Amino acid sequence: MKIIKTKLVILFLCLSGIIVNGQSRRVADKYFEEFAYFKAAKIYEAVYQKGDTTTYLLKRLGDAYYNNSQTENAEFWYKKLIEDKKEKDPSYLFKYSQVLRSNGSVQKADSIYNLLKITIDSQSGEKYVNKENNLQDFLNNGDKKISLRNLAINTPYSDFGGVIFEDKVYFASASPKGEKREKLYRWNNQPFLNLYKSDSYFERVDEAKTDSIFELENKTILSPGINTQFHESSPVFTKDGKTMYFSRVNFNGKKLGKDKKLTVNLKLFKAERVGDDWGNVEELPFNSDDYSVAHPALSPDGKSLYFASDMPGTLGETDIFKVEIKEDGFGEPVNLGKNVNTTAKEMFPFISDDNVLFFSSNGHKGLGLLDIFQTKIYNDSTYSQITNLDHPFNSKKDDFSFFIAKDGKKGFFSSNRAKGKGDDDIYSFYITEIPESERCYQYVTGVVTDKVTKERIPNAIVKLVDDLGTVLEEKLTDSRGSYNFKLECKQENYVVIADKRDYRNPDKKNISVLGKNKDERYTADLVLDPLIIGDQIVIKPIYFDYDKDFIREDAQYELENIVTVMTNHPKMVIKIESHTDSRGAKSYNRNLSDRRAKSTRDFIISRGIEPERIESAIGYGEDKLLNHCDDKNSKKCTEEEHQLNRRSYFYIVRGKEVSIDNVKPTVIDKKGYNNQKDMLEKLNKFKANKTKKLRSKSENDKCFKEDNDCGK
Question: Where does the OmpA-like domain start and stop, copy by copy (predicted)?
């Protein structure tokens, strides 16, 4: 009886712990769903310490810190989720790779990102693969110097969004107003944002007085007519100075508006100039309680208003939209489309006087979390390729709220990067020209050659790529197969990549310029392996498992090369020959090789190649063994030797003109290895015309075997 009582007490204590844990987690869930991430994280951690290590809890803990940009804490919990629990959800692989990169673990971030790309092949995760982009070149760091300053008006709280209007700079700050019972924003446990203005001035920072810093002073809060007890931010002004647009939470002066989930969203408002102040505040007609509309920006002609929103029609988490400003109101909001927006976050738009759209995104490939990007807006409302502003504007953390003045020299952006004063800080920048005599350049040169012919390859594509995979520049090799790049003197690593149609995989070389000198030159010669030699498409043999006819994964990779060549040469027609090893009856092996040929043919057709472009797909059974493993010696052979005979080959029947001088056929000796020397000697005997269509394989084989002068 005593034992039974003891067991009941233990069971009661265990159940009590589960109940308490469940109650605590529900409380944390409520805070989380109300965006009170600071409080939610603390309770989730207490629940974890009591034994709840479920994937649900780890996701919530990681997200609570991720949403507050506390990337070190987010990495700790995402690591447990991804590495301990083996979570494969693309959204969490994406976020884990982001926080790793933000925290400086670039190689590990790349490894997780590669796992993400593999995962999306079998899941609906394409939206988490970053769009590629180029680096910004309108601020060419080679001939300009960019001076940054963490502004004196920054506080330990969130400060962001400087814009110049008349002789003042306007921005948002969560610094305390000095009230006795000031409200706190539960998302980050800071005071709510208010709008401020400051005076600006220049400060010379070197003896030569060539380096200027743009600084602010005399911080003043805007009137209660604009600021409320909740958030205001992101002001923008019309050129006539009569109207200010800004963001505010869904608050009408008396109560907060909420959606069905009790979420308080953001809205856009406009105010009119009233003397030296602002008043007559009203919200814009396309706002809604059900979604957020925020971060306004005006086109240079003042006819369009840009903003960020998660309204219906959004491609991702938040997109950038624009709406026409009419005399009697506004048009219908229009999404900027897939060139600008991704399925992640795009926000904080700004349009410069020369019609360049700047915005922040974590969906385009960047240096860390939110990065600043730019694209030129054309007259037909299309956009140039997205480019990343790179250092010093972007960092491993969040970078956003970019603004550049009319003179194109000074401006602001905001960041929570390392060595700041607190949360988000405002940084000023000032751009000065560097005299030509002081500019620093380095050079990368090289040649691209054919691996088989050893000849240089003209018109090969050569790309210069940074260590994040961003294409900096792209060129074609000249008639001698040469290329060259002129680099700004940055402390960076680069990769040079060469590629051309009808060649196998691109070749690449790593170039490090860390700590190198001005005018230093680097050589990176590249070699490409041809996909076509003579009348044969050159790929590694496509092997089959014993007594099987399905296309293995390693064979699929090689077959994609066939598809690439045939796509590049739409008139090309090929034939397929498949083979078996010697084990089994000859009639059975003939049938098996036919099935292998058919499987090979079907795969190529499934990739979009027309059936009529495959003249035949024939199996030869064990008639054409590559080695000594015939019926007599079969039992003496290893499985690796038998494997060499279970293969498919591909031959061009017509549709490919090649130069005889460039033909160096590959043959396979009885051991299955490449042996070209003797064949090249015989090939020289029938070179005649510089360019002609090659004979069929059977005709060439006859020439080689009989040692005839087939060139005639």
Answer: 533-656
Reply yes or no on whether the pLDDT at 222 is more than 80.
yes
Question: Domain for residue 695, yes or no?
Answer: no
Does some domain include residue 712? no
Among 504, 528, 552, identify where a domain stops. 528
Helix (H) or strand (E) holding 247: strand 243-249
Residue 536: what pLDDT? 60
Q: Final residue of a domain: which of 613, 641, 656?
A: 656
Contact 356, 386 (CB under 8 A): no
> 219 and 297: one domain?
yes
Helix H or strand E encompassing 488: strand 482-488
Give the helix/strand (H/E) hosting 19.
Answer: helix 2-33
Kindly state whether residues 432 and 447 are assigned to the same domain: no
User: Rounded to whole angstroms, how far apart are CA atoms 307 and 70?
Assistant: 26
Residue 21 pLDDT > 60: no
For residue 45, count other CB atoms closer than 10 A to its CB. Answer: 16
Q: Is the peptide bond before 506 cis (omega within 30 degrees of 0)?
A: no
Report the candidate in 440, 442, 437, 438 with the shortest Cα–Cα distance to residue 520. 442
Residues 29 and 44: beta-carbon distance below 8 Å: no
Verdict on whether the full-model pTM lies above 0.70: no
**How deeply is 144 buried, as exposed, middle or buried, from its count of CB atoms within 10 A (0-12, 13-18, 19+)?**
middle
CATH number, position 235: 2.120.10.30
Based on the fold, state whether residues 34 and 79 are members of the same structural domain. yes
Q: Which residue from 373, 328, 368 is spatially nearest to 346, judged by alpha carbons?
A: 373
- Give the CATH number of the domain where residue 627 resides: 3.30.1330.60
- Distance of alpha carbon 244 from alpha carbon 251, whole angstroms: 18
Same-domain pairing of 303 and 167: yes
Backbone angles phi, psi at 374, to 5 degrees: -145, 155
Q: Are residues 554 and 629 in the same domain?
A: yes
Give the residue ranges of DSSP H helices in 411-488.
none
Rounded to whole angstroms, how far apart are CA atoms 345 and 318? 5
Quick one: 199 and 301 in the same domain? yes
For every residue of 86-128, DSSP letters joined together read: ----HHHHHHHHHHHHHTT-HHHHHHHHHHHHHHTTTSS-GGG
Q: How far is CA 83 from CA 55, 86, 88, in A?
A: 11, 5, 10
664 found inside a domain = no
* Cβ atoms < 10 Å from Cβ of 621: 22
For 157-292, list the strands marked E by DSSP: 159-165, 168-173, 184-185, 190-191, 194-204, 212-221, 232-237, 243-249, 266-274, 277-283
DSSP single-letter state for residue 611: G
- C-alpha 79/C-alpha 87 separation (Å) is 10
- pLDDT mean over 14-41: 70
pLDDT digits (tens, 9 = 90+) for 596-620: 999 999 999 998 899 999 999 999 9
Average pLDDT score, the chain:
80
Please report whether residue 675 resides in a domain.
no
Number of structural domains in the chain: 4
β-bridge mates for residue 155, sequence order: none
- What is d(CA 447, CA 633) in angstroms, rounded to the nearest whole number? 48
pLDDT number for residue 303? 95
Same domain, 215 and 347: yes
> How far are the Cα atoms of 102, 151, 494 from residue 396, in angstroms, in the given order?
4, 20, 19
Task: Say which residues have a Cβ less than 8 Å from residue 2's Cβ, sequence separation at least 6.
Answer: none
Both 614 and 576 in a single domain? Answer: yes
